[in-house]
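=== Structure Prediction Worksheet ===
Name of assembly: unnamed complex
Input type: mixed (protein and possibly other molecules)
Chain count: two
Listed entries:
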Amino acid sequence: MTSSPRPLDPRTPNGHAAFPHRHLLGLAGLQPWELSFLLDEAERWVDQARDDAGRSLLAGLTIINAFFENSTRTLLSFEIAGKRLGADVVNMAVAQSSVKKGETLIDTAMTLNAMRADAIVIRHASSGAVALIADKVDCPVLNAGDGLHEHPTQGLLDALTIRRRKGRIDGLTVAICGDIRHSRVARSNMIGLATLGAKVRVAGPPTLVPREAEALGADRFTRVEDALDGADVVMMLRLQSERMDGAMIPSPREFHALYGLTAERLALAKPDALVMHPGPMNRGVEIDSAIADDPERSAITEQVAMGVAVRMACLDVLTRQRRGVEGWA
Amino acid sequence: MIAAPLLIRNARLVDPLASEPRDASLLAIDGRIAAINPAETPADAITVDAQGMLLAPGIVDFGVFAAEPRACRFGGITRVALMPDGAHPLDQPGLIERAAKAGKPDLWIHPLAAATRALEGQTLAETGLMQAAGARGVATGRTRVADAGVMARVLAYAGGLGLVTVTHAEDEGLTRGAVATTSEMAFRLGLPSAPAMAEAMAVARDIALVEVTGAPLHFRQLTTAAAFDLVRAAKRRGLPVTCGITPAHLLLNDVALGEWRTFARLSPPLRGEDDRQAALAALADGTIDVLCSAHDPRGPEDKRLPFADAAPGMAGAETLLALGLGLVHDGTISLARLFALLAANPARLLGVEAGTLAVGAEADLILVDPDTPWQIDTRRMSARAGNTPFDGLPVQGRVRSIWKGGRRID
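=== Predicted Assembly ===
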């Protein structure tokens, strides 16, 4: 991430720019005030997603969504975010196999660059692939998920959901449960929430919760009950089907029996604890339907709504320099 | 091709078998070292004034994946032991014979025969016929032989022929799919990883098989404290076990993976700082026998990829000597020990009369200016590709002249 002059913001400590980064590749390395700045910007779009000012903000700009890995929700969310801001949004779905046939990722990046996009949103199955492309293109790059590394807009939308529901993030206890090892959502959340002052716990079967998670400041539990005890927020992660059948855990039903979020387990958390899930859910595996569908406890659909707002904010902020926004150009 | 007699005078001789370099002259006749400080010199001898520079045995680079004469000449390498991995694994006498002839006369390539057919780890390859065709050892390739029963037979059979078995040391179950050592760095980068202990697990099994078979075994690269402890103990018990390492594992730790630098994607992967320190200690105390380049040039098609998709390996032939001299400059090892690691020990493993300055040994010689500074530059390397994790590093020490069998290579 290269630095460039940016306006000082009253919310940042003296001498710091509001968001001095060209790309959004991860939440690692971002300062707390930079995360808060993005959340504040997103807040603007939550209730007025369709106002007229927004509709023309990115008019004339081209955004390419280059997804090298299957996605429905994130792709749709980025597409809607771009369109609500008036940008021309082009989706490029690149099956992994066709890329492997010949054109290297760098070649693809150079091609995208030659099309002179104003921002590129990239998802890729390999950790670090988005950074590799970002290094080769002239426009801002947003990471929409790279391998096991990070999914920064998911981390931001989760933080925004928590902040709106709880009024704060600092000092909250957040339990992230399930497949931590293979989850870029877990990494972005662990980093982002810890940066914003939350106490993060990770929990799940030892095969899916590596000890190294502690290096990112999280407390590690292998009994999900211990992690839920007194938690303000319970975040369940999706368990990938290919990991369910004996590879990492013996079976889905065993996972549910030992680690799934049931009403009994949720009762261990604070009475007003918020339940979250990045989706898509395996109902009856990592989470019981009754909890997922309880509007009092579950913020799962709200997370989706926050996703659009956060992505609008990120697209806005990262294109300000190109658009010549006063103080950013 | 008969070389004229060669007299190199005014040199500082670095003999791995001696403790200190000494000022002397060296005479080579008919491609072999004939005398140190000769009383008389043949009239037709070519005389070279070494101007006080280091005269050392040519490097015997043990376990390369590509034998590149230009890169080897730059790096002072006169012989290589070639790994059997390739598009066609070296598992037949004809392939061995061709590989053994490919570099002559400038670079002698000693092929290591595939331990098993097609390196699949299942059935013994024609080891004896490959030995007759020029193989100087057998090797399991980039991975170890997973089946302990097969490995026991590989060791016993090769040992019976007087050949060393060269193995990779990583437990395949623990390391399947892994591209890094389990660590905070790997977790942050989101890289599939395996615990460093996977190496010691493999070493423990194979040392046990050496006890069973009595056959000599060389671990091509060891990189972890636990593995060095096992080898140290095995040597103490008198077992014929040796091991090697590359400069990368002595000088870099897994922090080098930052920003997913694929030039730092190696096999075995870079380790944590504790293991790196243990490697330096093992180098100093004699546990490590061989310093090698593991030369494996990889172009953009293999390296300009996301980290986990990139091929492992580094181009190391050109930087091996300079990085090794760095270990001398910083006091980790002596000059004589460096050339034991680079030349004498690997030559002994291969059973070739080279790697020393003893009278009668092959006159494979390099003249080295140990102080000349230069900078490693990935864009300016002689190898087919410049995939070095040491790009930009300032180093000291440059080869000025190189002789293979008493004949100067230009």
